[in-house]
Write a structure and sequence with these properties.
This protein has about 550 residues and is mainly beta. The chain has helices at about 10-15, 165-175, 370-375, 480-485, 495-505, 510-515; strands at about 5, 20-30, 40-45, 55, 60-65, 75-80, 105-110, 115-120, 135-140, 150-160, 185-190, 190-195, 200, 205-215, 220-225, 230-235, 240-245, 245-250, 255-260, 270-275, 290-295, 335-340, 345, 350-355, 390-395, 400-405, 410-415, 420-430, 445, 450, 455, 460-470, 475-480, 490-495.
Length: about 550
């Protein structure tokens, strides 16, 4: 179902901060979301999809989570900065221990000055890959970049025939992964089979805000409404200077708001196009890519306008470095640069892996936040976190520039927990001729770089981003493709651990939740003192 919400700006501006409380019973549900496969998935209160969450800027969002699964769980609000409450960020064994089966835990999430388009998803055992996610809209208290009449949201998902861990266990068991038949997905639009999504109704002359959320786990989505222009006004919960485009190209985790003005006449209906595709599996007719179409309805029974097909390279799409931030903050001056390069390799069974740091990311024996809080002065030494975490220790308030190079054939989106980052530059990296793709041009941002929390780094490209280390905590930086995250494409940023120790302490209930599972809550990554990391499983390093 398409969720439609009429927003009266004057009402929002007059609201006071409130406390919104939700009770979520996270459990297994069964059904056929794609009208093709009946399977087990993860829902909330017996529903999948489960309702989107709406709050207002400044509100406190309280989510009481009860775990009815047979494995631990946790939640992450994708894009929420959690400044001062790092322990509510959600990734299992990074900032917390998972909520054990049969137990409950309450997240107290402060929206503070943030507003825009976000989403909430599981962050333990890749449960977002099995349906555990929903949109979060934080409505602004001020007038938007462009005033509109109504708003609606659209969600894009990829949906597979089996549960994520079942698929991965099968791949891991193969003697020769080259024999694997690729897993192809279906696409869901607004939670249901992309071919059966309800029409979008436009009233002539009205101006609409479309909030579009890519909640996929592996696939990219392209979205267009031929015969209509879109004006981008927001990306990843941050307002942008208006930019007129023909369509959107979105990777896993990314969000946009666009303004679309309906035509003045209701004599014709229109068709929107949604294309779902992946860069790491082979194209196959009817399976990859897949184009879904839906109706923009002006009037029941009206004929559909016939619009000639135009190739993508003749259209305008928003580029990562092209958008400009509405707040007009200039480029940050750099104090320190970290360069990360995606390293792709295979094991002896030809299962592919990708590393972002020196090794494949693997969970250690103590939540990394707890190590940062308990190791005193040694918390400023990256070695105490274990080589499996790829930890980088940042100084308080320094401006960090991160360059991510991708000399491989796969596209990625990288999500920064705890920060929005300025997108400074994108460009070519490596030899794109191996995939028969023309080298992309270098694109340097304008004077007011866009802030984003999830950035695309496409095959044989690089991206340069900057942020100020003003949010002490332990923050995950990882590829948002579930299969890449599962295989270790991540690092951890340890931000100002000395300041963190002065300002934050983990709620006792979270500590006790770890202890009941036999998980250490103090010490280095192995739960020991000093640099004694005995007990950790061996780190896996890419071949030199």
């Amino acid at each position: 179902m398409l969720h439609l919400l009429v927003i009266f700006a004057t009402t929002l501006l007059g609201c006071f901060a409130a406390r919104a409380e939700l009770n979520w019973d996270v459990g297994y549900v069964y059904g056929s979301r794609d009208d093709f496969t009946y399977r087990r998935a993860i829902g909330v209160n017996g529903e999948l999809p489960f309702p989107p969450v709406h709050v207002t800027q400044g509100d406190t969002l309280v989510i009481n989570v009860h775990n009815s699964l047979n494995v631990p769980t946790s939640i992450h609000v994708h894009g929420l900065l959690n400044n001062g409450t790092n322990y509510y960020d959600g990734p299992d064994m990074v900032t917390q221990c998972g909520i054990p089966p049969g137990e409950s835990f309450t997240y107290v999430l402060e929206t503070k000055n943030q507003f825009g388009t976000f989403w909430i998803h599981g962050h333990t055992r890749h449960q977002e890959a099995d349906g555990f996610y929903t949109p979060l809209i934080i409505h602004s208290r001020k007038q938007p970049v462009i005033v509109y009449d109504e708003e609606l949201h659209m969600t894009f998902e990829d949906w597979y025939t089996g549960e994520f861990y079942v698929r991965q266990a099968y791949i891991d068991s193969l003697d020769d992964a080259r024999t694997l038949t690729p897993y192809y997905s279906k696409a869901l639009i607004n939670g249901y089979d992309g071919n059966k999504t309800a029409p979008i109704t436009f009233v002539p002359g009205k101006r609409y805000r479309l909030r579009i959320i890519c909640m996929s786990i592996n696939n990219w989505f392209k979205f267009r409404i031929p015969g209509h222009k879109m004006t981008v006004i927001e990306a990843d919960g941050v307002e942008s200077m208006p930019l007129e485009v023909d369509g959107l190209s979105m990777g896993p985790g990314q969000r946009y708001s666009v303004i679309v003005t309906a035509h003045n006449s209701a004599e014709l209906n229109y068709i929107y196009n949604v294309t779902s595709y992946s860069r790491f599996i082979t194209d196959q007719q009817g399976l990859q890519p897949i184009v879904y179409t839906g109706l923009i309805k002006y009037k029941d029974g009206a004929p559909t306008k016939n619009i000639p097909v135009v190739s993508d390279d003749q259209l305008v799409w928003p580029e990562e470095a092209q958008l400009q931030a509405y707040d007009k903050q200039p480029r940050l001056p750099v104090d320190r640069q970290i360069e990360l390069t995606v390293k792709r390799f295979s094991n002896i069974h030809y299962v592919p892996f990708s590393a972002l740091g020196s090794s494949l990311y693997k969970s250690v024996l103590v939540p990394t936040l707890y190590t940062a809080l308990s190791m005193g002065e040694l918390a400023k030494n990256s070695s105490v976190y274990g080589p499996q975490t790829n930890a980088y220790v940042l100084k308080h308030l320094e401006v960090v520039e991160i360059v991510i190079n991708n000399p491989a054939i796969e596209d990625h989106t990288f999500h920064f927990h705890g920060h929005n980052v300025q997108v400074i530059e994108t460009g070519p990296f490596g030899n794109s001729s191996t995939i028969d793709r023309e080298p992309v041009p270098r694109i340097l941002s304008g004077p007011w770089p866009m802030w984003r929390d999830t950035v695309q780094v496409r095959a044989f490209e690089f991206i340069r981003v900057r942020f100020r280390a003003d949010n002490p905590g332990v923050w995950f930086l990882h590829c948002h493709l579930a299969v890449h995250m599962y295989n270790g494409l991540a690092v951890v940023l340890i931000e100002a651990p000395d300041v963190l120790q002065q300002r934050q302490s983990v709620p006792e209930k979270m500590v006790e939740m770890c202890k009941r599972q036999g998980i250490h809550t103090q010490g280095n990554g192995a739960g020991n003192q000093g640099f004694d990391l005995s007990g950790l499983p061996p780190a896996v390093y890419p071949p030199s």
